[in-house]
Every structure is written in structure tokens, then in C-alpha cells.
């Protein structure tokens, strides 16, 4: 039974169903759908389920390019999982796990770090050039590089906090 207005944000409040079981089931469902072509014959149902995956994959490929290999499939599966988890958060008395700061940080920091490290490895000169704004005075260059580095390092933390605050509001 709900004790106050904020008990719907308590993740241990299991009035109707446990979100942990739903999260595992949704993750397994997304994995099964995205890998369905491996264990089923191609038919209309498989084709209909592959349409959203192909749309998401084409959007990710257009944004990130083809240099990151399996990153497009990972982003497509992550998008589908987050979509299902956010839709489950709309069910009354079910706490949305995506409004937790721990979940947003655990998703944003590894993804951000993988993109930063891969860009530094694949194109180090462009990554270093991105730290210095164009047309900056020569005396301010070391300070501007330091400020830009700090802003890049703080970005996933601030975005995670904003996302968690917006989801819980």
C-alpha cells in the first residue's frame, strides 16, 4: 500500500509487479527479436520485426559511420531496450528504472568513454584539434585546451543528472 505521494519513486515498492523481472524479460525479448534471423526461417513475421531494427540501425550508421563495427547493432538494441523500459515506466505504480541516476550513469559513462577513446585512437589529430577553438589568441591556447578538456570530462555526468531529474519529475 502506498504511504505517501513519493512512494511511487521507491524502487522497493512492489505493489503490482517487480520492475526487475520486467527489465530482464524486456532485455531478453529485445535480444531475441534482434537475433531472430539466426534461429528462425525468413517469413513475414521476421520481416516485420526486422523493420524497426533496420530503421534504428540506419539512423545510427548515418550518425556514427561504419568505422565502429558492431556499435550500430549495440545502439539499436540499447534504443529498443530503453524504449521498452520507458514505456513500462508509464504503467501506474511501477517505478521507472531509467529515472535512477545509477542507471543513467552506468549507460552514459561507458558509451561516452568508448566514443572518446575510439575517436582518439582512430583520428588523434582531429581529436586534439577539437580541443582548441578556431581563432583563439595564442596566449590563451593552453587555458582553452584545459577548459575544453574539463567540459568534455564533465559532460556525461551533467547529462546523466539532467536525464534522471527529467525522468523523475
From TrEMBL:
Compartment(s): Membrane; Mitochondrion inner membrane
Transmembrane feature ranges: 21-39, 74-95, 102-122, 134-154
Topological category with respect to the lipid bilayer: Multi-pass membrane protein
Family annotation (Gene3D superfamilies): ATP synthase, F0 complex, subunit A
Alphabetical list of InterPro entries matching this protein: ATP_synth_F0_asu, ATP_synth_F0_asu_AS, ATP_synth_F0_asu_bact/mt, F0_ATP_A_sf
Keyword flag Cell division: no
Coiled coil start-end: none
Entry keywords, A to Z: ATP synthesis, CF(0), Hydrogen ion transport, Ion transport, Membrane, Mitochondrion, Transmembrane, Transmembrane helix, Transport
Single annotated GO MF: proton-transporting ATP synthase activity, rotational mechanism
A GO term from the CC aspect: proton-transporting ATP synthase complex
NCBIfam families: ATP_synt_6_or_A
Family: Belongs to the ATPase A chain family.
Name of protein: ATP synthase subunit a
Amino acid at each position: 500500500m502506498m504511504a505517501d505521494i513519493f512512494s511511487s519513486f521507491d524502487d522497493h515498492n512492489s505493489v503490482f509487479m517487480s520492475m526487475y523481472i520486467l527489465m530482464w524479460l524486456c532485455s531478453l525479448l529485445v535480444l531475441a527479436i534482434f537475433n531472430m534471423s539466426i534461429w528462425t526461417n525468413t517469413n513475414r513475421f521476421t520481416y516485420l520485426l526486422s523493420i524497426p531494427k533496420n530503421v534504428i540501425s540506419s539512423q545510427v550508421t548515418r550518425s556514427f559511420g561504419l568505422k565502429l563495427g558492431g556499435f550500430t547493432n549495440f545502439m539499436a538494441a540499447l534504443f529498443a531496450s530503453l524504449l521498452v523500459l520507458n514505456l513500462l515506466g508509464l504503467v501506474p505504480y511501477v517505478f521507472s528504472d531509467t529515472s535512477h541516476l545509477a542507471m543513467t550513469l552506468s549507460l552514459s559513462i561507458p558509451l561516452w568513454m568508448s566514443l572518446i577513446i575510439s575517436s582518439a585512437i582512430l583520428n588523434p589529430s582531429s581529436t586534439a584539434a577539437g580541443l582548441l577553438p578556431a581563432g583563439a589568441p595564442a596566449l590563451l591556447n593552453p587555458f582553452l585546451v584545459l577548459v575544453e578538456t574539463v567540459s568534455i570530462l564533465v559532460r556525461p555526468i551533467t547529462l546523466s543528472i539532467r536525464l534522471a531529474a527529467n525522468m523523475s519529475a
